[in-house]
Amino acid sequence: MPSTYAAEPEPDTWVVVAAFNEAPEVGRSVAGLRALFSHVVVIDDASGDETGAEALAAGAVVIRHPVNLGQGAALQTGIDYALCRGAACVATFDADGQHHPGDLRRMLAVLREKRLDIVLGSRFLGRAEGIPPSRRLLLKTATFVTNLAAGVSLTDAHNGMRVMTAATARRLRISQDRMAHASELIAQIRRLRLAMEEVPVTISYTEYSTGKGQKMSNSLRIMLDLLTGWLLR
Amino acid sequence: MMIQVFLSVMLAGIALLVGFQGTTSRLLKAVILGVIAFGAFLLWTPETTDRFAEAFGVGRGADLLLYVWVVITLALIVFLYLKLTTLSRRITQLTRAIALAHPRGEQRPPEGSDR
Asked: Residue A67: its chain B contacts at CB < 8 A?
């Protein structure tokens, strides 16, 4: 790979990747990230495959949950780790190869340039390559519901790409262990009145990532989780 | 008559179990035994529940018991669900603490960094 013109890797940003049984893709995702970011931490959420070893070999710090908790919990563990390592900015990224590390760099640039608290990726401002129609409908519906509930107007409420300052990362707290964390974060962003912007990103759907993605049947579970979280707040 | 005898034996069994339960506090034991005794009383005097039921505008005493039972069960389910969620939050905290204590791959100098 010609690296002569490649930008220097970001030295003070930590990229958090939550991974559960992602051995086939996590290595490639980490390698891509490591070309642009010095620090990548993969939270192996008690995978049954070689996810941890693959991530380690590709150059990530690997933290393994002894029992499976879910994506929300894994992200919070990674954010805690990044903060305790002195990160200036924290980013989140998916392990399944759908995301492009270059997008994360652009999001980071926007965060710094406009002095925002948090930047969210949007596949509907950008591109959703090869997105199955049913997935598009599900995501659009979920975004509509989240917007309605949180009182915001986002174009893509459930995007795994986020970049935030360390101060923001300290103020946000994911208590939703499973998939309801995306809506939870948006509600918190709104409540804390954080300076936020959506940046267009590209999500490339593959057979692999579509197979691992969220199903329609999970929406009910997510709503129940949100309701319980609200009751216990 | 048969059902009254059968249910009384069941209640007596539960009362014995509660009575010999070493870990339950005396106060709780007294409350549970009181509830069981009240149940036995209602069992042998069905006209009492019928009178209660009439006061609430329900036809039969047995129907009133069923409605009360449904409400109590639903409340218990919600209570247990919230309790489970609190418990799983604690498990999350514990798991996170264990995980953060054992990071792998930290020693490596970061790529493209001269620090």
From this structure: 91, 95
Residues of A in Cβ contact (< 8 Å) with B115: 11
Task: Please state the pTM of the whole predicted model.
Answer: 0.83
Report pLDDT digits (tens) over A27-62.
999 999 999 999 999 999 999 999 999 999 999 999
User: In this prediction, does ipTM exceed 0.95?
Assistant: no
Give the residue from chain A lying closest to B90, CA to CA.
A175
Beta strands in chain A (DSSP E): 10-19, 37-44, 61-64, 89-94, 118-129, 162-165, 196-204
Judged by CB atoms closer than 8 Å, whether chains meet at A61 and B103 is answered as yes
In B, minimum Cα distance to A59 occurs at B105
Closest by CA position to A96, among listed A205, A189, A1: A205
> How far is the CA of A65 from the CAs of A52, B61, B98, B113, in angstroms?
11, 54, 8, 28
